[in-house]
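Hi V.,

Quick status before I head out on leave. The structure for the redesign project is tokenized and pasted below; the design run finished overnight.
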């Protein structure tokens, strides 16, 4: 995981990871799926779709940060 807090994209990555964690926690805290009403299942589906998009963005940022770290500084 990219851990350079000075990288310009680090703050955005932390924000995305926080959103992802919050969304997953909300979904995991739901009641038993077998007892959930259809509307609740739809909300869970929407939350998981949102988490999927946020995860893709976080992956992209991590890869960009990693790629930047692999490039040696110009002397």
């Amino acid at each position: 995981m990219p851990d350079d807090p000075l990288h310009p994209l680090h703050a955005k990555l932390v924000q995305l990871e926080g959103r992802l964690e919050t969304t997953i926690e909300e979904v995991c805290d739901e009641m038993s799926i077998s007892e959930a009403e259809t509307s609740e299942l739809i909300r869970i589906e929407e939350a998981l779709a949102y988490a999927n998009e946020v995860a893709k963005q976080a992956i992209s940022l991590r890869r960009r940060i990693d790629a930047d770290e692999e490039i040696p500084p110009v002397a």
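Above is the designed sequence. The radius of gyration is 17 Å.

G. will cover questions while I'm gone.

Best,
W.
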